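Appendix B. Raw example, untouched.
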Amino acid sequence: MKNVILYTDGACSGNPGIGGYAGILIYNGKERVVSGFEKETTNNRMELLAVIQGLKALKEKCIVDIYSDSAYVVNAFLQKWVDNWQNNGFKSSKGKVLNIELWQQLIELVNIHEVNWHKVKGHADNEFNNRCDYIARQEIEKYKKSLT
């Protein structure tokens, strides 16, 4: 299997508000960027969508190291929250889990690949996380400019 690195980030102008997401896939020294926006969304949805779109870009089963600054996304897998949610009909101790349709998509994609999760510190010294943040924010600005 191919070993792929995926860096992701999501951003939102307002929460809810206009959101952008970005992922950088790296394989054999080559990079591919996936990015986009939504008109009315939340930061957590953009964090999820960044990972989903990155994994959707893969054409075959891979070993994927995912780097994200989103504790929401990374901890859901590392701390087995998604397992508990699935077993409880997507309910948590605090009630219904938000963004169920995105979680379901992500779980399906994660089950295709061999995924290793890595939490990185946001807005720090990680070059690729910073680039994802920049690209996600550029998606927001592109959308705002299209409105004028």
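End of appendix B.
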